[in-house]
Write a structure and sequence with these properties.
The protein is of the alpha+beta class. Helices cover about 35% and strands about 25% of the residues. It folds into two domains: about 130 residues, 3-Layer(aba) Sandwich (Rossmann fold); about 240 residues, 4-Layer Sandwich (Phosphatase 2c, domain 1), CATH 3.60.40.10. The chain has ten helices and 18 strands. The strands form four sheets. Strands 6-7-18-17-14-15 form a six-stranded antiparallel β-sheet.
């Protein structure tokens, strides 16, 4: 039952309206002044208010303004009873918060029609309030879920970063520095190295398609396949009948990963890869490129070379064949294996860094300290992008041959 508040300093007028409203099934309360009505509203807000405009003390306009200023979400439909009909006065009433007007003396049919219109507004307002409450509760629940996921992703990021425990390793005749920086909490890039023998190491740079959790899970599995701590689980190693190990050629390793990805992983993800077999004594490097950006070689004199066959990504075509090529490093030469997040880094004009831009960037780091070069490059990339962040994961390997 709707609760209606009648406010009028005339007892006769209140009586006439009260009888009519009660006959229509409304719960009616009365007040003889604006101040009394305001106190009643503070105790329990009515659904509808019929208030005279002209009253001693607090008039209808002031009461309406005070009523609208009361705290709370529930809406009360306010009808002013008045003999005023000037447009300026009507506008003043609306400005004060009134919803409608009734001209005195009040016609019973018109009163019923105006209140019915008010009830429709109240129904819509109640429905809107309920929907807003549901939305608010849903958003609160989503925030709790997001906070939980965010905590999980932070832990996942720590775990993914732990896949690259040795960011810098000195082999004596050579040294390697690693960089892994995801565009989000976790990403699809992976870099690492593993020992082949006392004089050889394997270096790998991988970029899994997509972003986020599923790509990160693939990198975790690939890290196991190229483990430096468990040679017997490393797909680059082949166990002989006598228990000894031999190392496969880079192209054979990539082919094995292609077979595993298509046959065992049951995923729609694929990945690009650059795998290098580095001879620490001679400087000879044998590489297999599978859709990954070209390796960059910076000679000791600052000359830069970028070359490679390109090749197919891993995990797209069954029985795909992969080729390999080799380069020879001399003392002071450096080998860079970078993900496409570097060359495809956008600038403020919508362009990209590209291979030529990468050469200009690398040229500034001739003779720069090996351990901090990759991080310094990230700072330069951030400046290149105008500080907008990186839309893709950024990873890289920097190997320096010392001879």
């Amino acid at each position: 039952m709707r609760r209606v508040l009648l406010v009028d300093d005339s007892r006769v007028q209140r009586r006439i309206l009260s009888v009519s409203l009660k006959r229509d099934g409304y719960d009616v309360i009365e007040a003889c002044s604006g101040q009394e009505a305001l106190e009643l509203c503070r105790e329990k807000r009515p659904d509808l208010i019929l208030s005279d405009w002209v009253m001693p003390g607090m008039d209808g306009l002031e009461f309406c303004r005070e009523f609208r200023a009361l705290p709370g979400d529930e809406y009360g439909y306010f009808i002013l009873l008045t003999s005023k009909s000037e447009k300026a006065e009507v506008a003043q009433g609306f400005d004060s918060g009134a919803d409608d007007f009734l001209t005195k003396p009040v016609n019973a049919y018109e009163l019923r029609a105006r209140i019915s219109a008010g009830e429709r507004i109240l129904r819509m307002q109640r429905e809107l309030t309920e929907k807003n409450r549901v939305i608010s509760d849903t958003l609160d629940e989503l925030q709790r879920v997001y906070d939980s996921l965010d905590m999980d992703l932070i832990e996942a990021k720590k775990l993914q970063q732990s896949l690259v425990p040795d960011r810098f390793r000195d082999f004596g005749s050579g040294a390697v520095s690693l960089l892994l920086q995801s565009s989000g909490h976790v990403g699809g890039d992976l870099v690492g190295h593993y020992r082949i023998s006392d004089t050889r190491v394997g270096l790998y740079s991988i970029d899994v398609s997509g972003h986020g959790i599923s790509s990160a899970l693939i990198t975790a599995r690939l890290a196991g396949y190229l483990s430096s701590s468990s040679p017997e689980q490393n797909v680059a190693m082949q166990v002989l009948p006598d228990g000894s190990h031999i190392h496969l050629e880079p192209r054979e390793v990539v082919a094995r990963l292609n077979e595993i990805t298509l046959g065992e992983m049951e995923t729609e993800h694929y990945f690009t890869m650059l795998l290098a077999d580095v001879d620490l004594t001679s400087g000879r490097v044998v590489m297999a490129q599978a859709g990954h950006p070209h390796p960059l070689i910076q000679r000791a004199d600052g000359t830069i070379e970028q070359e490679g066959p390109g090749g197919l990504p891993v995990g797209l075509i069954p029985d795909a064949e992969f080729s390999q090529f080799e380069v020879v490093l001399t003392p002071g030469d450096r080998l860079m294996m970078l993900s496409d997040g570097v060359t495809e880094c956008p600038d403020t004009q919508g362009g990209m860094l590209g291979e030529e831009g990468l050469e200009r960037l690398v040229a500034d780091f001739v003779g720069h300290d090996l351990e901090s070069t990759l991080q310094a490059m990230v700072w330069q990339l951030d400046e290149f992008s105008g500080g907008q962040g990186f839309p893709d994961d950024i990873s890289g390997i920097l190997y320096e041959y010392r001879g």
